[in-house]
Amino acid sequence: MEEIEVLQKLLKEDPSNFQARRELTFLLVKNGFNEEAKGNLQFLIKYFPDDAELYYNLGIVYEKLKDFSSAKDVYQKAVNLSPQEDFWYNLGDVLVELKEWDSAINAFNEVLKTDKKDGNSYFNLGICYMNLEEKNKAIDMFQKAIACNPKDVYAYFYLGTIYQNDGLTNFAIENYKKVLEISPDYSWAYYNMASIFYNCGNFDDAKEYLKKTIEFNSTDYEAYKLLVKIYLKQGITDEILEILHAQLEKEENGDLFYCLARVYKFIGELEEYYTYLDKAIKKPYTLTCSINTVKQEFEYVKNLLGKHEKIEPENTIDEYDSEEKTPEYNYSESLDEETFDNDSESEYNDEDTENVDDNFVDYDESDYEEESGLKNHDSDDDTYSDENEDIEYDSEVDSPEDES
Question: Is-contact 290 364, C-beta < 8 A?
């Protein structure tokens, strides 16, 4: 900060000191003073329109300001003036943000022309090919990313989801185990492992992996939903009631209230069923199912109570179709503010939205998408794929919400 103040003082004394302004601008970019940096860069570009580095740093600022269209334009100018590896990489980065997959592939391939071991470029190529539904090419790119960086947890995770989509569960498990070797607290890998075991009918192992999911991400409410379903299938209610109540003591949540309501319905406790439906309705912004459907269910139960009627405990849990969500991948977070280089970071978001029986209402993700930051895709499985913040890959697996 002291260096910034010195340079500002120099410019105050001599506004035409371009070297001081240039140094100040790069320090502003490095320290996150984005609006000030943008103004200085635009000023300098007027006087030095052929300086590729100025356009490159202006692109970084636009990325930080989430103005990806402007970032694309100035990165393209930087590349045209000087086709450097870093310039191509950042251009590819924003093209992914803009979902211009083919152009992004071209940009990352330009990086690889000069650096055959750039694991981040291979990883991003894998993401592009996933979105273009070219799975074999995506697998090849993720494997190359791992060859460059054997600890690339995200490449292993995406390989796992591809194999899981194709029903190759042994390969999927192998890759998820690699994820957990590298990052033992990676909750989404636990969730996907649980989903595989659930779909194979191995409920005990599925429960253990779901408990690990919750241990490392106590607000992964989709894990609770699937856990409820398993416990009810097994006819075990005391333990799941304890788990749900314990989490609700920490944070009230519409989905968890609704899960509690379903458990009480299952064991035939009408008043508790009514109470927690009411609580779920009063938390609409954390309720991912259709609020209107829950209200209808609430009125039905209210009517039963008014007539002093009872409900019989349920003996079976029927299967139902799930509505799944896909992760988001935040490419803009990959900027290295120290050197203006890039590192690939990802955030994955997704959720399993199954019900505990055929009367458990289908979740309407549109009611909650804005609040939760989740994106949807259609599928028939109970798994995570992998946020992260802006991947639009439609798969048959879903991914957990961002790690907290």
Answer: yes
Lowest model confidence (mean pLDDT) among 25-29, 250-254, 307-311, 375-379: 375-379
Closest CA to 384 of 318, 320, 319, 322: 322
How many other C-beta atoms can be found within 10 angstroms of the C-beta atom of residue 359?
Answer: 12
Distance, in Å, from the CA atom of 61 to the CA atom of 31, rounded to the nearest integer, reads 11
Q: How confident is the model at residue 314 (pLDDT cuts 50, 70, 90)?
A: low
Predicted local distance difference test score (pLDDT) of residue 358: 35
Tokens of 229: 């379903």
Distance CA 64, CA 82 (A): 22
Between CA 119 and CA 104 the distance in angstroms is: 15
CATH architecture of 184-404: Alpha Horseshoe (1.25)
H/E stretch holding 353 reads: strand 352-353
pTM (2 d.p.): 0.75
pLDDT at 88 > cutoff 90: yes
Name the superfamily (CATH) of residues 1-90: Tetratricopeptide repeat domain (1.25.40.10)
How far is the C-alpha of 226 from the C-alpha of 209, rounded, in Å?
11
Residues carrying CATH 1.25.40.10, the chain = 1-90, 184-404
* Residue 369 to residue 185: CA distance in whole angstroms: 26
Instruction: Please state, in angstroms and rounded to a whole number, the distance separating the CA atoms of residues 388 and 223.
Output: 18
Q: Which of 400, 392, 404 is nearest to 157 (CA)?
A: 400
The pair of three-digit structure tokens given for residue 71, joined into one six-digit string: 């970032």
DSSP 8-class letter at 30: H
Can you give 263-313 as a three-state secondary structure string? Answer: HHHHHCCHHHHHHHHHHHHCCHHHCCECHHHHHHHHHHHHHHHHCCCCCCC
Q: What gap in Å lies between CA 296 and CA 298, rounded to an integer?
A: 5
Beta bridge partners of 75: none
pLDDT digits (tens, 9 = 90+) for 190-242: 999 999 999 999 999 999 999 999 999 999 999 999 999 999 999 999 999 99
